[in-house]
Amino acid sequence: MRWSIFENIIELYLLAGKTVGLKTGREKHLGWILNKPGYWPNSVIGLPPETEYLSIIQKIEKGLLPPFLTLPTDTAQNHLPLFRQHYMREVLRWEGMFLLKENFYPYLEKPENYIIKQVSNIQGLNDWTSVVLPVMLPNKSFPEKLLNGFVSSPKLQLLTGYFNNQPVASGMAFTIRNVSGIYFIATLPEHRGNGYASAIVSKLICNCFEKGVKEVILHASDAGKYIYLNLGFEAAGGMSTFWKVGR
Asked: Which strands, in side-by-side order, build the sheet including 156-163?
């Protein structure tokens, strides 16, 4: 698994934690943010040695680490008996992907009556969350302080797509150490299949490469990865998220 994918997510979590004043931690190959139940983010993620899996799970059981644990799928599958023994259930699986500038194929279609705007004020933020929350985080919330930090941070860009002046799609890019991570790509169900998400992802990538970024990364669902393959992304390995049952 490509380390830059995990590192970018870890750094995003640490930025979120610092913005809101939450408890966070960072080791060489691991990072985490401990949040209130029902709020994003609330996860530990990384590429720790497999010999440390038991220790990490035990810390989760004691409440010292968050209840969600994200690891490379291939190594995690080798330890399923351990996860089951400790009531850790796999709840999500993604494909890690990366893109270099020379392999980028921009999405050139322009959907009719569709415009993309960068979030820069409260109304724009409300429009962005009106897409992200119901599609990607239906049972979670963003602290208001975190959202305000998103808008003001130079490391982040938030885009919203509007069809007939109504918010229908969203996306975010987080850039650090010449790597940009693409997150929160969402389209309201009734507007899918029109290229709205592809247009936002392409716009985010163009903006990142124009700023000198060397690599763009993301983690894709099965439904979304074909969009990214068409843009030039390459698969880098699976990522599995396990949840401590009852927490």
From this structure: 23-27, 30-34, 43-46, 68-72, 234-244, 88-100, 215-220, 179-187, 166-176, 156-163, 114-118
Please count the other Cβ atoms lying within 10 Å of the Cβ belonging to residue 26.
15
Beta-bridge partner residues of 219: 96
The SS3 assignment for 81 reads helix
Pair 84, 113 in one domain? no
The model's pLDDT over 161-185, given as tens digits with 9 standing for 90+, comes to 999 999 999 999 999 999 999 999 9
- Total domains in the chain come to 2
Of the pLDDT bands very low, low, confident and very high (cuts 50, 70, 90), residue 39 is confident
How far apart CA 182 and CA 128 sit, in angstroms, is: 15
Clarify whether residues 45 and 158 are in a common domain: no
126 and 221 share a domain? yes
Task: Please work out, in degrees rounded to the nearest 5, the angle formed at the alpha carbon of residue 172 by the alpha carbons of 162 and 169.
Answer: 25
Burial of 50 (0-12, 13-18, 19+ CB in 10 A): middle
Cis ω before 106 (30° cut-off from 0) = no
